[in-house]
Amino acid sequence: WVQLVESGGGSVQAGGSLKLSCEASGISYTYGCMAWFRQASGKERELVASIWMGGGNPTYAASVKGRFTISQDGAKNPLYLQMNTLTSEDTAMYYCAATQTGGDCRLPPDSYRSWGQGTQVTVSA
To answer: To the nearest whole number, what is the mean pLDDT of the chain?
Structure first.
């Protein structure tokens, strides 16, 4: 039974930074994808960034590229999302997700099997 627990969300002013963490337990597979999704009020859940389990091949949504960095230093270590130069458009609930798969991690939400409970990020202008 996979459990993902996010932390690090909060309120910040525009231009500020936050670092989200995701602690995983119960993952028995050694290859797959991990990702950060976000869902703003009234909008669909969207992929923000993804990475091969362990830390390879990071990918980013166009809206966050150059500002956000996804990282994981080894499959048994936490997943992180460093978010810089935040804007009000980044306000959302952020979710950590994981799934066992090979290849491209830029998958829709229903392709990820395990999810955290989410952590709220609020950016004020």
So the answer is: 95
